[in-house]
Each structure stands twice: as C-alpha cells, then as structure tokens.
Automatic annotation (TrEMBL):
Residues 170-276 form the Fe2OG dioxygenase domain. One of its GO terms (biological process) is small molecule biosynthetic process. This is Fe2OG dioxygenase domain-containing protein. Keywords: Iron, Metal-binding, Oxidoreductase. The keyword Oxidoreductase applies.
Length: 337
C-alpha cells in the first residue's frame, strides 16, 4: 500500500523497543526522547512481550462480541460520561464537513480498576479480569515511558512526569475500546472517522490493526497515514504532557479517515489514555492555567461541538494547528512549569 488519494504513508516514524526501554538502555531512551521531541508519535515494538501480544488478541475477540450486540443493549452501558461506559456513534463532530464521528466506544476507567469492580452490565463485568489486566499493563508501560523521559530531561522529585500520576489519584485515565463500523453501501455516509485532535491526557497507548490513522507531519506539513504494524503499539504525547514539559515534548495532531470514501470493514482500536491526576496544574501555550480535570472536561465539550465552542480551532488541536497546517508557535509554551 503506497498511497491513498493524495495521502502518503509515513516512512519516518521512529520505532522504539519495549524490552530495551524496560532495561533502561541508554541509547534507546535517547531515541525515545528524540521521538517525543520531534513528533510526539512513535511505534513501540511489543514483540518481546508475548503476554501483552496475547492480551491484545484476547481483547479483540471480546470487543468484537461486545459491539455485535444490538444498540439498545449497548446503551444500557451508556453513562453520559467521557471516560467510562458506552458512547454511540456520532457523539462528536466528524472529520469531514457536516459529518459526525463514525465510531462507537466502550470505556473502562482506571477508577473502576482501582475499585476492583465495574458497575457496567454483565457483558462488561464478565470480562473485567481481562480489561483490568490490560489496564494494569498499559498503565505500567506508559508510566515507565514517562519515567524514562523524565530521566532523559534531568527532572527530579515532584517535577518528574510520573509524579503527576501517583495513586490513588483520582484521575481520568481510561481504557477506550473503539469500533468504526463498516458503512452500508446504499447511503452516503454521514458518520465518518474521528476528527483531527491532539489527545487530552499525557500519553496514549494505541493498538490498531487496520488502516485509517493519520497524523499531521511536522516535517512535510501534510497528513500522513500511519501503517498498522503487527506487534507494535503507537504511543502519542498528549496536551497534558506537552504543556507541563514547557513545550519540550511535542504532541501530535491526528485523525482517523477511511482509506476510501466508505469504511469498508469494521475497524477496531484499543487505546489506553494515561491522564494526570485531576488536580495537577499546567499552563497552556497562551499562559492560561488549567487543572488536568478542567482541561479534560473543557476539551471533551469541544470535541462534541468544535464549531461553536472552538471557532478559532485552538483547543481541538492543542493550539498546534490551523487549517490543517502546524503553526510555528505550537511548540512554544509561554509559561514553562
Ligand atoms: O482509532 C484510532 O486509531 C485513534 C483514536 C484516537 O485518536 C483517540 O481516541 O484519541
Ligand atoms: Fe487521539
């Protein structure tokens, strides 16, 4: 697969090895820092961790079964929340004019993991061991990545990134299970993909086997497709790491758009969203102070209605982008922490 329309497949994303990061291999940790400074987007090679790869497989079969259920059954898990429960298609604005998004999601929050139980329905509760084991794994890996980044930047004590995430929190860290259903051939799709955005939290650990993910490349200033690689996660830096890093770490503007006009098969993604503790504070690139909870709540409102709440397009993409181009000031944070 070389291109889709005028969108090229990225050839430049760095690959970082989980086993080498775990072993604190210095050159791998330097590569990690470099990837997060340049792109805020990288492949994490998980092939050394067969247990994690098996969990990925198991999660996929469970979520396929879950989403197959009728809408009214899934709606019993709807909690009107952005970080746990079921959300139907079209909750947010879509990437194309006059469209809403083309995915449904089930979120299992780390708060439920810490509590040791979920109050969602039986079809979720019966798989909670698997979901909780995955949350534990993804949380440990993302915190380990933060620790390697903190060390590479020479951060100590309470200024280390991990220290914004200590238990018992609370935080909005959550596991998101997403399905972009195949489009019906008959009608022109009105629910498509996932609008451009930067992630709200600190790091995202994303597993997706199918095409569709694109990012705005800081090198080419174009949308580039991310090739799904077996045994590899995508790690991306979110607003709540870029801002507290004083802009030293980059965040990536990304979106999901079907390769052709229609989504030709069901697309699944599994995302662990690591987020700061609710009361952690940082400044955005205009110097405004936010709590992590405040930023999360505001940005999720924006996702639903960017055209009214974010007419200048600042918040959706973390002040990094205008009209599908990255802005010069995007990496600078006025008031570094
Ligand atoms: O579905 C995907 O591959 C990406 C999802 C995403 O970017 C998000 O949920 O923040
Ligand atoms: Fe995202």
């Amino acid at each position: 697969m070389a291109t889709s329309g005028s969108i090229v497949v990225s050839r430049s994303l760095p690959v970082i090895h989980l086993d080498l990061l775990r072993a604190e291999n210095d050159s791998e940790c330097k590569k990690l820092l470099n990837a997060c400074q340049t792109y805020g987007f990288l492949y994490l090679d998980l092939t050394s961790d067969s247990e994690l790869c098996k969990q990925w497989e198991d999660m996929l079969s469970v979520i396929k079964q879950y989403f197959k259920q009728p809408l009214e059954v899934k709606m019993q898990d709807a909690r009107g929340s952005d970080n746990y429960g079921y959300e139907p298609i079209g909750t947010e604005e879509g990437p194309k004019p006059k469209t809403r998004d083309g995915y449904e999601s089930l979120k299992i929050s780390r708060r439920e993991f810490l509590k040791g139980s979920t109050d969602l329905t039986t079809s979720v509760r019966s798989e909670s061991d698997l979901f909780f084991a995955f949350i534990k794994n993804a949380h440990t890996i993302t915190l380990m990545i933060l620790s390697r980044l903190s060390s590479q930047l020479g951060l100590t004590g309470s200024s280390r990134f991990e220290s914004y995430h200590t238990d018992p929190g609370p935080s909005f860290s959550t596991l998101g299970l997403l399905r972009y259903p195949k489009h019906d051939e008959a009608a022109s799709p009105t629910n498509v993909g996932h609008n451009k955005h930067t992630d709200v939290g600190s790091l995202t650990f994303l597993l997706a086997r199918q095409w569709g993910l694109q990012f705005l490349s800081p090198e080419t200033q174009r949308w580039e497709l991310v090739e799904p690689r077996p045994g590899h996660a995508i790690i991306n830096v979110g607003d709540s790491l870029r801002f507290p890093s004083g802009g030293k770490l980059a965040s990536v503007v990304h979106r999901v758009v079907p390769l052709k006009e229609r989504q030709e098969e069901d697309r699944y993604s599994i995302a662990y969203f690591l987020r700061l503790n609710d009361d952690a504070m940082f400044c955005d690139s205009t110097g405004k102070t936010w709590t992590a909870k405040g930023w999360h709540d505001f940005k999720f409102d924006v996702f639903k209605n960017p055209s009214t709440l974010d007419a200048n397009g600042q918040f959706l993409t973390g002040m990094m982008e205008e009209n599908d181009r990255l802005v010069e000031s995007g990496h600078k944070i006025l008031v570094a922490q």
